[in-house]
Amino acid sequence: MDIKLLAWKFNKFRERIYRQSAKILVLALYRVRFEGFEKIPETGGALLISNHVTYMDGLLIDAAVKRPVRYVIDSYIYKWPGVHHFMKLYNAIPIEPKRDSIVTALDTAEAALKNGELVFIFPEGQLTFTGNMSRFRFGVEWMAKRAPVQVYPIAIKGLWGSMFSRKYRRSKWKFLPRSFRRRVVVKCGDPIRHEKAKISYMQLKVMQLKNSIEL
């Protein structure tokens, strides 16, 4: 068997194992309810967007979505020891606030979407400091404009105040758990058509989705 093909199959196997492990982990840590993820098609490209509450959000998305996802991630976090290994395996797309980096990331995301892959981005660009959503950055609109795919809004609710959120960032006890197996809901909404994927409209849809969740 061709060595490159064997390596590709092995990496795909590892990816499936890691994604399943992510699901086991989040189900052990939280009482999670996933809603609406059957709306994401089994094949074809799509852009996924969500509010950003904690460093666990990516694992929740991984546990919810049945297909492999390519994450657009801050290059600083992409390079973290430990994280870097998984991000390379997931073919994540690193990005930093520099023109060359942004152009490369947009080109890579566009190619992935047109190739029928799922691409995920947190449009706020950072974790919330208040529990409320920050303004979406224009990168998500630029990304949506470049590939004729639908955008799926996702909302995460129930993690604000957990040890991985920024609520207690000034406390010396910030990494102590405040509760165990807290109730969390991750909900996927109806797709946003390509021609309606404007930054303000996408933010409105994620906000409405978040407000519709009952814990």
Layout of strands and helices, then pairs:
Layout lengths: L2 H27 L1 E5 L10 E5 L6 H8 L4 E6 H4 L4 H7 L3 E3 L3 H16 L3 E4 L17 H7 L5 E7 L25 E6 L10 H13 L4
What structural category do the secondary elements indicate? Answer: alpha/beta
Shape: globular
Low-confidence stretches: none
- Series of H and E elements: HEEHEHHEHEHEEH
Strand order of the largest sheet: 1-7-6-2-5-3-4
Q: What would CATH call the homologous superfamily?
A: Glycerol-3-phosphate (1)-acyltransferase
The CATH topology turns out to be Glycerol-3-phosphate (1)-acyltransferase
Q: Oligomeric state of the chains?
A: single chain
Our measurement of the CA-to-CA distance between the termini, rounded to an integer number of angstroms, reads 51 Å
Question: What is the CATH architecture annotation?
Answer: 3-Layer(aba) Sandwich
Q: Which percent band covers the strand fraction?
A: 15-25%
- Write down the domain tally: 1
Count of DSSP-assigned helices? 7
